[in-house]
Amino acid sequence: MNETLANKESPQHSPRVFSGVQPTANIHLGNYLGAIKRFVSVQHEMESLFCVVDLHAITMPQDPKKLAAQTREIAAAYLAAGIDPEKSIIFVQSSVSAHAELAWLLNCVARMGWLERMTQFKDKSGENSERMSVGLFDYPVLMAADILAYKATHVPVGDDQKQHLELARDIAQRFNSDFKAKGFFPQPEPLIGAEASRIMNLQDGTKKMSKSDAAENSRINLTDDAEQISKKLKRAKTDLFPMPDDVAELKARPEVDNLIGIYAALAEITKEAVVKEFAGLGFGAFKPKLADLAVDKLSPISAEMRKFMADPTQIDKILEKGAIRAREIAMPILQETKNLIGFWGAD
Ligand code: TRP
Description:
The chain is mainly α and about 350 residues long.
């Protein structure tokens, strides 16, 4: 085992990555830069599982006529971005029953108070928490089950998922101590990207780029073609000042900060380097450069994605094979978990 990859708190567990993306409509640039792009690089460092988390998607209403297509769309994005299905395991959450089953077991370990502190639930439910599904409240426990069903040690996630990962760590620790199974579940570590783990709305730099925003101009979809990518970036909101000459200025200019962050992430350089390159210029000079860069990096992915989506049988084959491989890992871990709890049949 490569020592530098070992999980510091759980060195006895071999390094394994787990992450997931929900199959809701309109997968976009934020999903790519904040998550999928990092999946592609991490797969070369350790064994990796990348899941399409449809059980999570149904915590909010989904159209039954569209869910399967949306699921294939995320799988297509994984493949188009460069996740290698021979190397990594790409699969659909609902096709591996261990996720739902382990979630139940972990529901009896997690405490109400822990879940009540989750800011994403509060943000999503707002004033309406009484009308939300129980699933939405329980979402983070299912996410813990996703990770722990594979004893994953590393989890690439966006900034907004850090609190959920903390909860997964608490649940793992509590299970281990309640069932006197020291070190049974690892303490999964977050892998948070440096630049651009948070891509914002192109028309409002204070809001996250979102799949559900009604304004198409607010996001770049991964299926957008070159012309759409370029048009949306050129129309992105900015302000009346020239490009900043110091990154400190970006705090007060969220839209500009976002565009510079997107440039940095696509070019794989720091925001400082971008600021230095464009300092004092107008947006008329910066935006076409940004648009060209984005088209350059994204249009091959969207072309590839459309190709995969035109061949659903190929996607389905990959997902079926992925499910088999995922079950091979998760089922024995689920069985061990049940044994520790003391269920009949395991005694
Ligand atoms: N909650 C994650 C998100 O919205 C998706 C997710 C579900 C996930 N299960 C996971 C991410 C397990 C990492 C590990 O981005």
